[in-house]
Amino acid sequence: MSQTIANVTLLVPDYDAGIAFFVDQLGFTLLEDTTLSETKRWVRVAPPGAQTALLLAKADGDAQEAAIGQQTGGRVSFFLHTDNFARDYAAMRAKGVSFKEDPRHEAYGSVVVFEDPFGNLWDLIEPKS
After folding, report:
1. Is the pTM of this model over 0.90?
2. Rounded-to-integer distance, Cα 19 and Cα 15, Å
3. Domains of the chain
4. CA angle, residues 76, 79, 83, in degrees to nearest 5
5. For residue 44, what are the β-bridge partners?
6. Confidence (pLDDT) at 111
7. How high is the pLDDT of residue 56?
8. Which run of H or of E encompasses 65?
């Protein structure tokens, strides 16, 4: 049997704001943007070549709005692997991505924590081979 995680839901306050950050600032690919109703869309973004996509879900109601950026209780939520840390770090800085620290070189690779505009923490990591 073969299984993969196809999508991971990420709450956002607005679909277009999510697309703008992930596509324009991080360089993700917009895989799908399908209108489902007057208020709901099916929006999927992913890094080039990724098997798993983010499903951007517009928060609906107070409870979901309160969960934006807090889906993992303040911990790093996502781990974006790269094959060239210096290139991607420089490109992200140039596009205004908010970094929470200076890059670190750990036993497992080069890493830096950044925050998306919705409050989620991410690691940009180039793992050691």
Report:
1. yes
2. 6
3. 1-68 (3.10.180.10), 74-129 (3.10.180.10)
4. 145
5. 32, 55
6. 98
7. 98
8. helix 62-67
Query: Residue ranges of the chain with pLDDT lower than 70?
Result: none
Rounded CA-CA distance 39/60 in Å is: 9
DSSP 74: T
**Residue 112 and residue 109: Cα distance in Å, rounded?**
10
What is the DSSP code (8-state) at residue 68?
A: T
For every residue of 5-51, DSSP letters joined together read --EEEEEES-HHHHHIIIIIIT--EEEEEEE-SSS-EEEEEE-TT-S
Token pair recorded at residue 120: 């989620």
Whether the Cβ atoms of residue 47 and residue 88 lie closer than 8 Å to each other: no
| One-letter amino acid for residue 25 of the chain | Q
